[in-house]
Amino acid sequence: MRVAVFGGTGTVGTHVIEGLTNNGIATTALVRAPGKASALRERGTDVVLGDLEQLNTVAATIEGADAVFLLTANSPSQGAQERDLIDLVASTSGVPIVKLSVVGADLESPLHLARIHAASEAHLRASGVGFVVVQPGWFMQNLSLAAKGIAHDGALRFPIGDGGIAAVDARDVADACVVVLADPQRHLGSTLSVTGARDVTGASMAATLTTVLGRSIEFVDSDRAHFEPLLVSQGYGAEVVEDLVMLYDLIMRHGFLAGPTTSVHEITGRPARSFEAFVRDHASWFVPTT
Questions:
Q1: Looking at 104, 129, 154, which one is the last position of a domain?
Q2: 3-state SS of the chain: helix, strand, coil percent to 5?
Q3: Kind and range of the H or E element at 173?
Q4: Which structural domain range is residue 204 located in?
Q5: How much is the average pLDDT of 203-218?
Q6: pLDDT, tens digit, 9 for 90 and up, residues 87-117
Q7: Which band of pLDDT confidence, cut at 50, 70 and 90, is reported for residue 159?
Q8: Are the C-beta atoms of residues 120 and 86 closer than 8 Å to each other?
C-alpha cells in the first residue's frame, strides 16, 4: 500500500508519515522546501519537490497511491489548493482522501479558517471520491505559544478565562489518521471528531505544569493586547491573527471547545495521551534559557 501525503512536514504530518512507515506502508510526500526533503528520504519516504500551486507535482505525488492524506497550511489560497487537489484525484485515480479539517468547521462560523475547511469538506463530499474527514480539537502543542512565558516568567498567558478545552495531543491525531489511512474503507464517509479524553482549563494546565516541572506556574488570563503581538511575532498574517484571537478570547473562553470524547481509544485501540504525559514529553520547551 502507498499513501500520498500533503502536509507531511508539520506538527501532525510528520507523525503521520512516521506512523505509516512504522506500519510498513509506503509514502510519497509533496515537499516545497528542499531542505526538508532529505530527512523524509532518510526515513524511506519518496519525495516530490513542488507545491500545491503546481498541479503537475501534485499529480506526480498521487501517482500510484492507494489513499491520500490532505493537510494544507493556512494561506490565502488554501481553499483553492484543496479544491484543485480533490478535483485532480476525482478525475484521475479516484482513491480515498483523508482530510484533516478543524473542529467546528461550518460555513456560518465566525472563524475564517472554519469556513474554509467547511467549504473544502462540502467540495470533497460532492466530488464522488471516497473520503474521511478528521476534525481535531485544540492541540496541546499549541502550548508552544506560551512556552517562553512559562519558562522565564512562570506564567501561562492565554486569553481563555476558565473555559474548558478538550485538548488533544497532535500525536494522537496523527495516530488516528494512520489507522484510517491504513484501511479507509472502514471509515469511509465518516466525519471523525478527535479530541482528548478530559477537558483542561488554563488553571488546570498551570497546575499540571507546576507538578511536572517542579516549580510554580501561574495561569494569567491575558487579553488581546498581549496575545495579538505574540501571534504576529510567530509570523502569522493579519487574517490568521484575527481568527486566533477570536478562537481563544471568544470561543475557547466560553467553553465551546469543551467536551472530551473517547474517539482516540475507539479509533486506535489505546487511550488518548493525557496533558500530564504531553508536558513530561515536552518539558524541555519550558526550561529557562540563559
A1: 129
A2: 50, 15, 35
A3: helix 170-182
A4: 140-165+197-259+274-286
A5: 98
A6: 999 999 999 999 999 999 999 999 999 999 9
A7: very high
A8: yes
Q: Please indicate, yes or no, whether residues 146 and 114 belong to a single structural domain of this protein.
A: no
Burial class (CB in 10 A: 0-12, 13-18, 19+), 51: middle
d(CA 233, CA 47): 31
Residue 74: the pLDDT is 87
CA atoms within 13 A on the CB side of 42: 5
Whether residues 108 and 228 share a domain: the answer is no
| pLDDT attached to residue 290 | 66
Report d(CA 57, CA 283) in Å as an integer: 39
What's the CA gap between 78 and 159, in Å, rounded? 27
Residue range 33-80, pLDDT digits in tens: 898 999 999 999 999 999 999 999 999 999 999 999 999 998 889 999
Among 5, 8, 12, which residue's Cα sits nearest to residue 33?
Answer: 8
Residue 173 included in any domain: no
**Residue 78 sits in the same domain as residue 124:** yes
**C-alpha cell of 192?**
471523525
C-alpha cell at 2: 502507498
- Write down the number of H helices and E strands in the chain: 13, 9
Question: Are residues 241 and 108 part of one domain?
Answer: no
Asked whether the beta carbons of 129 and 98 are under 8 A apart, the reply is no
- Grid-cell match 506502508, residue found: 25
